[in-house]
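Anyone have tokens for Acyl carrier protein? Sequence:
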Amino acid sequence: MASSFTSSISMHARVSATTTRFSLQIPALIFNNGKTNLSFSLQRSMPARLVVSCAAKQETVEKVSEIVRKQLSLSEDQKVTAATKFTELGADSLDTVEIVMGLEEEFEITMAEERAKEITTVQQAAELIEELVQEKTA
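Reply: yep, here.
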């Protein structure tokens, strides 16, 4: 028999008389037969800067990298990683539009112009693609 619940974690950070607050909900499935353990570990000290990242699947990042490489006619030895910015590869605004068109065709999605303009890295493109694909299948 399994029980399902959602836990909520709230964190507060005090910075120069302002308070930043965010909440993270984590769905969990607990089995009564003892085969699954769930444990959380919270640390009291927090870094001065907190970065939250929702990494896209590696296969999506790789596909985006391939499309970027193709659209910009990059050589195989030129490194394209998730953190690579299109401008670092010499892309201008027209190149970026062509990259977006290539991504839309490959993943069979449509990106709103406002959202497409926000994409500056391979990782951002991969995350947006996964979001749009998930919305499409929902």
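The longest strand covers residues 2-15.
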